Write the structure tokens for this entry.
Amino acid sequence: MFDTESDVVFVKGLKVEAVIGVYDWERAITQPLLISIALETNIRQAAASDNVEDALSYKAVCDDVDKWCKDIKAKLLEHLAEQIADRLLANYPCQKVTLSLAKPTAIKPADAVGVQIARYAKAVEDKPVEKKDNDA
């Protein structure tokens, strides 16, 4: 999760109770999810100012992810992971999100099963470069 040269704000092992699963019995209960997130972002301003207003709020990230998991009620971890990554990129100043999402009670002999994805912010469209008078 931290194989990067960029600044990272991270959340490790966020515990969320949510409806997740494809079976009827899974749709009728909540199950525990373990979520880890790495948000690649520039932390220089917060580091220089020592002001919380200049920082990406991991508390807000945790609150939002908890709410999204409960609201989405996904059948597949893959769908939920994609939805969370898209929303993080849309709502927080980050260039890349790496997210792991695990169901620790899904397969009894396993500690957990899950998915990990990495998603990037959409690239800014290249604007045509204006030629200077001395460019030929």
